[in-house]
Design brief:
Radius of gyration: 17 Å
Largest sheet: 7 strands, antiparallel
Shape: globular
CATH class: Mainly Beta
Distance between the termini: 19 Å
Order of helices and strands: HEEEEHEEHHHE
Strand order of the largest sheet: 2-1-5-6-7-4-3
Number of strands: 7
Strand content: 25-35%
CATH topology: Pnp Oxidase, Chain A
Helix content: 25-40%
CATH superfamily: Electron Transport, Fmn-binding Protein, Chain A
Structural class: alpha+beta
Number of domains: 1
Length: 167
Amino acid sequence: MASWLEKFDKHYKQAKENGSFDATAVRLATCTKNGSPSCRMVLLKKYDNQGFVIYTNFEGRKGRELLENPKAALYFYWPEIDVEITIDGKVEIISDNESDAYFQSRPFFSKIGAHASKQSRPMFHAIQFFARIFYYWIKYSIKREVNRPKYWHGFRVIPDKIEFKIS
């Protein structure tokens, strides 16, 4: 019998090959420590026998919820191949080295965006965000080295339960 990783890998590759708009798109569900749920779309950046890795800002809602209640659910839906996968598990913060390595693999402006974004905080006008982007673009454009912000990190969802629904 195939392991959960082999089954997931087979369907993930099949979704990518069959025109999925973005096979990495996954719905992440979290809860506050008081049990108030929320969910949003994120991008899967890595998966292996340890679990499923996403990256986010610790200061945003999802980051705060993952820190205060380290449990989550992931939901993949690939209509092109009619497959749904639900994963429930505990969450751990990945190492600084792994977060640094992934951050450095990102394009320059994605790194700038990580510095400029004030996730989950009200903004009075879009010009505030563009001003922050411009500030960090100027700050880092000379040396072209952008260090990972300390509040930006990876989380790994370690599966306790995985359900495959294949029609």
